[in-house]
Design brief:
With 219 residues, the protein is an all-alpha fold. It has helices at residues 7-22, 42-45, 64-75, 85-91, 95-106, 124-131, 141-144, 166-178, 188-193, 198-209. Helix 3 (64-75) crosses helix 4 (85-91) and helix 3 (64-75) crosses helix 5. The longest helix is centred in the first third of the chain and has 16 residues, at 7-22. It starts with 6 loop residues before the first helix and ends in a 10-residue tail after the last helix.
Length: 219
């Protein structure tokens, strides 16, 4: 049963809130002076871009173009993450913020991530898939190395994989394979992931994450 509120109390409350709204800056208000747009990213990704936990991707060293594309994909509904957190965060960034956030993380160089997935005993096939390709699957470095057209200013914008968290790589490959992630241009990653076994994904996640020279490999 609803309680009746005395009209005088309503009037007093209205006057108080009107006074707060009309008053200049107050001492107890949050001061956002100096707060940069990448600070809101730091809670999950770390201000150094290392990724605070295994499920959050490492943004450090990613190309400006790739970060901007992903943020725009989240904002415009072309990419969805678990729970929709990134859609909310990305929608709060201005166009100028997107570029500044991307520039900030591109120049970060945190420590190399530790391995979190139990590595398979043999990484021979993973090395082959990553550097040469196998069974008609193109080599990962054909798009994901610094000298590949995709990362050297080509039409396709591909992320840096060397140094990415192994758990995150495995999750993205699994999502591409199932179709839960579908913002890859021309279905390239979906078509590749569908041809990978669970063992391939695990091994690739470990190899790609933990091979420092992979980013500089020649495709």
């Amino acid at each position: 049963m609803h309680k009746l509120v005395h009209p005088r109390r309503v009037l007093v409350a209205a006057v108080i809130w009107a006074g707060i709204a009309a008053s200049p800056a107050r001492a107890d208000m949050v001061d956002l002076t100096g707060v940069e747009p990448w600070h809101s990213c730091g809670g999950c990704h770390g201000l150094d871009g290392a990724g605070n936990r295994i499920k959050f991707p490492r943004l450090a060293g990613q190309s400006r173009a790739y970060v901007v594309k992903q943020l725009n994909d989240f904002r415009e509904g072309r990419r969805h993450n678990d729970g929709g957190q990134m859609q909310v965060m990305a929608s709060e960034l201005t166009e100028a913020d997107l570029a500044r956030v991307a520039d900030w993380f591109a120049k970060q160089t945190p420590n190399w991530p530790e391995l979190t997935i139990e590595p398979p005993s043999d990484l021979t096939r993973a090395r082959q898939l990553a550097t040469k390709g196998a069974d008609g699957i193109p080599a990962c470095v054909s798009c994901h190395s610094a000298t590949a057209p995709a990362l050297a200013g080509g039409e396709t914008v591909a992320p840096r994989l060397a140094g990415q968290r192994d758990f995150y790589i495995a999750k993205q490959l699994t999502d591409f394979r199932s179709g839960n992630r579908d913002n890859d241009p021309k279905h390239v990653m979906r078509n590749i992931a569908k041809r990978l076994s669970d063992a391939d994904i695990t091994a690739l996640a470990v190899f790609l994450s933990q091979t420092p020279g992979l980013h500089e490999a020649t495709p």
